[in-house]
Q: What sequence folds into this?
């Protein structure tokens, strides 16, 4: 098991390199001269060239890439913002906690609502509860997160004045953004749990459990649930990625100073090093979360655990 | 294959199909159906609510919202279909090659896909769109490329499972070439999961496109993309909520219909559920 | 539809009857129609007896077994009427809590496919221990120890209680399933085609194990199978089931020397004879009827070469044609009464 963990962690390194490469390439291909961005339109051609030489912008692509990776790995230096001139790392680390809190809170809500609803829908298939839950799930899946956010603001902030429409510092401020963000994830997790549960309930070993004289509640909540939740764990991991991406849009709406808003502003301002750093950060976070999920999955399912002994 | 389509007995799926067809019709005949042009400004009628002249009201420039929604359908559907086509083509070919030839080719392609998959899809689309710049065409590429890895995976696993089946061995044994085997035998049998994923993919592409336009990438004004309309109406939400209500509703209905359709297709094509 | 005539009852001493099923009717109510899975089924089992319950796939054997355990999936399945007397008490009158006490303890079941009958994420030991703890007041540790004992009894090293199902082969999985069934020393064991899903060589092993354990535990057993060879090997009495009813019931010797019901005759006939030089195998013409649309009268009559007009009109009752040998076919019963020397034998009618 340990070997599996170590292997997976080591495997992340080429993935991170790959992501950095992609992001770096994208940036490289972006029209516009970074030197001009920093120095402004009024700078002289000479000053621009000096800047380019100093920052290594005239070097071949691979040299630039290598230098970026080297600086990032050894000093945590992933460039400077064109606009604020502060290190990108600093900008990101200031913004990151907000995004993580928002995503984590949404993930928690999604799991706490999604899984029980999915289970109950499966147990009482075709009942009123099931039908209503499925309807809500479909709607939740189909609503764009930015629209839902605006609607929630409209209802709870503008009309009812119950909750604030921006910021993330008080617990009241956290409610609307988390709700908006988790809608889609709740829907997906509910549906996944339901279908997994339905499949498991029909399995032969559930019948065996009943034939032993086991109580129905134990059959469902222990035998069936454990087996059904295993694929759901994977889905939750993937959903976290969706949540991270959705946070970008949510932060825009609710004026939360997280990475998402940082990136949106940076895109508008063409502050590409920040965008690049942001994408990198999110990708790395997502990879780590997925690794964690895979390990949990391997731990839970003895069949997988056995493959990696 | 047609037989499978007839299995779509689910009423929800049929509703979804109907709505999608309706949207396609609206998109195709936008010029005929829309009462006004999407950019015509009626400066004396700004921010009006629904009325006889302007069935869904007007926006901040006095433009008829209904007309803009109708033209927006054309844009959204176009982006959705083309983006998915790009993803399907690129991803499908890569996945087929990967699954069929195996070995280091498979490894190499799948590693690249893994890298792409480690970036959440919407974020990847944002990054690509940010790099390419605004515009309809760039939007389609961004959304398309960001969904490519999923199709590569699906096609690859379909190919892998079919490749192991005996009729492929038989085809080899009578001397069919690789290309022929891929196109005549493997791909038609892999269709089912691809179709389902593509349907849901169009929904997701439209959602992503709207999201990208919302934050300013993608479609630029005055083009009436639904997400952009939402973004434009956002500042007026307190006083004129209808600017954001209707475009959002349009997006939601479209996505809902596509999801119903996709779910219905998935159930219809699932061999385990066939009677 | 004409009412069914009353069946002759076996005049066995009542206290020796472990299980008696009378007039059991089980339907599945689906959107497309009602599936008549079990129709007016009669069955009896004495203590210590092994009953072979024979029939083709779809005849209703598993449904009957699940009916005894009251494990019929409740929508869409419904036990419409009948009595299932176990140790003198009607199981159909019992509450769910009472049934739970009986399942696993007094009546145990072995299912057909060992690959899917075991919970993939629980260790074998825990799965056996679960049954013990449900019906006996023991601690987890003691239950696991008992589980270890059972494993050894079925020929598996006791250390393997900590392993998971996927680490066992099909035959070994089935042994564990048997261990789970027997651990609480049930009075009745229902085995639903326990060896069908296994390789032929493993089948023999598992059957031998079952024979040995049958002696050791002195359990009565209903063995559901479609293999007459297994019946010959391990059973004492045989009930032949067709389209939801028992059509013939006899002790093994009587059935094998003189199969009476046309279906039974057909079954024996269709077994290829090593010494016979034939070009075509014997088949029973036609197919098993659709349980949603059973024929009128005797369910076998459309395929039966002895059928007469009354077969279409009246559902036949079980009649005793020889001591302990019951057949639901008035035509054949009459034939045997009138010409007792004409043995149906394994050759079939000439």
A:
């Amino acid at each position: 098991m340990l070997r599996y963990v170590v292997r997976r962690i080591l495997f992340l390194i080429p993935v991170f390199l790959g992501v950095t490469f992609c992001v770096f390439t994208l940036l490289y291909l972006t029209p516009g001269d970074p030197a001009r961005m920093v120095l402004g339109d009024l700078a002289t051609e000479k000053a621009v060239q000096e800047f380019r030489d100093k920052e290594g912008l005239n070097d071949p692509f691979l040299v630039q890439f290598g230098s970026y990776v080297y600086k990032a790995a050894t000093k945590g230096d992933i460039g400077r913002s064109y606009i604020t001139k502060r290190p990108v790392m600093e900008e990101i680390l200031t913004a990151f906690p907000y995004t993580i809190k928002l995503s984590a809170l949404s993930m928690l809500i999604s799991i706490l609502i999604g899984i029980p609803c999915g289970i109950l829908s499966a147990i009482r298939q075709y009942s009123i509860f099931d039908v209503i839950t499925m309807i809500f799930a479909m709607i939740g899946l189909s609503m764009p997160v930015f629209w839902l956010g605006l609607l929630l603001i409209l209802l709870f902030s503008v009309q009812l004045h119950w909750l604030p429409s921006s910021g993330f510092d008080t617990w009241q401020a956290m409610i609307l953004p988390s709700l908006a963000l988790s809608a889609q994830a709740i829907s997906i997790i509910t549906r996944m749990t339901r279908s997994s549960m339905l499949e498991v309930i029909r399995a032969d070993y559930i019948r065996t459990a009943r034939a032993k004289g086991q109580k129905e509640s134990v059959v469902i909540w222990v035998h069936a649930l454990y087996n059904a939740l295993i694929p759901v764990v994977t889905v939750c991991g993937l959903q976290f990625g969706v949540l991270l991406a959705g946070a970008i849009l949510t932060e825009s709406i609710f004026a939360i100073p997280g990475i998402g808003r940082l990136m949106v502003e940076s895109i508008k301002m063409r502050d590409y090093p920040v965008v690049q750093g942001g994408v990198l950060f999110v990708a790395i976070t997502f990879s780590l979360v997925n690794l964690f999920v895979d390990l949990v999955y391997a731990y839970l399912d003895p069949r997988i655990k056995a493959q990696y002994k | 294959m047609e037989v499978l389509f007839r299995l779509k007995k689910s009423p929800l799926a049929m509703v979804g199909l109907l709505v999608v067809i309706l949207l396609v019709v609206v998109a195709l005949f936008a010029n005929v159906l829309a009462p006004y042009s999407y950019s015509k400004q009626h400066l004396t009628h700004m921010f009006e609510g629904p009325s006889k002249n302007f069935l869904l009201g007007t926006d901040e420039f006095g433009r008829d919202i209904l007309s803009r929604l109708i033209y927006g359908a054309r844009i959204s559907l176009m982006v959705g279909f083309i983006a998915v086509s790009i993803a399907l083509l690129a991803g499908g070919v890569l996945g087929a090659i990967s699954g069929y030839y195996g070995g280091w080719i498979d490894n190499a392609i799948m590693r690249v896909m893994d890298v792409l998959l480690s970036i959440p899809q919407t974020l990847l689309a944002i990054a690509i769109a940010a790099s390419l710049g605004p515009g309809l065409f760039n939007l389609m590429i961004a959304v398309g490329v960001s969904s490519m890895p999923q199709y590569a995976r699906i096609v690859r696993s379909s190919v892998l499972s079919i490749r192991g089946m005996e009729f492929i061995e038989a085809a080899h044994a009578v001397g069919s070439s690789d290309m022929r085997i891929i196109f005549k035998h493997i791909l038609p049998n892999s269709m089912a999961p691809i179709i389902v994923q593509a349907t849901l993919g169009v929904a997701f592409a439209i959602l992503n496109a709207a999201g990208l336009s919302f934050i300013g990438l993608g479609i630029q004004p005055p083009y009436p993309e639904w997400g952009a309309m939402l973004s434009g109406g956002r500042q007026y939400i307190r006083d004129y909520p209808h600017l954001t209500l209707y475009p959002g509703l349009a997006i939601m209905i479209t996505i809902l219909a596509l999801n119903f359709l996709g779910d219905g297709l998935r159930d219809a094509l699932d061999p385990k559920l066939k009677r | 539809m004409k009412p069914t005539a009353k069946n002759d009852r076996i005049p066995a001493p009542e206290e020796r009857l472990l299980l008696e099923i009378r007039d059991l009717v089980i339907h599945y109510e689906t959107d497309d129609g009602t599936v008549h899975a079990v129709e007016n089924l009669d069955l009896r089992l004495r203590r210590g007896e092994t009953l072979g319950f024979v029939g083709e796939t779809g005849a209703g054997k598993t449904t009957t077994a699940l009916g005894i355990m009251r494990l019929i999936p409740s929508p869409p399945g419904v036990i419409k009427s009948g009595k299932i007397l176990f140790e003198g008490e009607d199981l159909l009158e019992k509450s769910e809590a009472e049934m739970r006490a009986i399942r696993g303890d007094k009546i145990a079941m072995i299912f057909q496919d060992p690959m899917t009958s075991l919970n993939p994420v629980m260790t074998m030991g825990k799965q056996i221990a679960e049954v013990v703890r449900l019906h006996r007041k023991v601690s987890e540790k003691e239950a696991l120890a008992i589980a270890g004992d059972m494993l050894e009894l079925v020929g598996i090293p006791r250390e393997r209680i900590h392993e998971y199902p996927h680490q066992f082969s099909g035959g070994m999985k089935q042994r564990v399933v048997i261990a789970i069934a027997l651990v609480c020393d049930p009075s009745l064991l229902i085995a639903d085609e326990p060896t069908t899903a296994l390789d032929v060589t493993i089948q023999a092993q598992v059957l031998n194990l079952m024979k040995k354990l049958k002696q050791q535990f002195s359990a009565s057993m209903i063995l559901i199978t479609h293999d007459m060879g297994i019946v010959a090997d391990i059973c004492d009495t045989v009930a032949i089931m067709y389209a939801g009813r028992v059509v013939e019931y006899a002790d093994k010797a009587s059935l094998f020397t003189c199969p009476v019901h046309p279906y039974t005759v057909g079954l024996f006939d269709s077994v290829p004879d090593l010494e016979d030089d034939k070009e075509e195998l014997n088949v029973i013409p036609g197919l098993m009827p659709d349980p949603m649309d059973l024929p009128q009268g005797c369910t076998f009559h459309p395929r039966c070469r002895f059928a007469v007009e009354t077969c279409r009109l009246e559902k036949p009752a079980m009649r005793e044609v020889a001591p302990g040998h019951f057949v639901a076919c008035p035509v054949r019963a009459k034939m045997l009464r009138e010409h007792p020397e004409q043995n149906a034998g394994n050759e079939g009618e000439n």
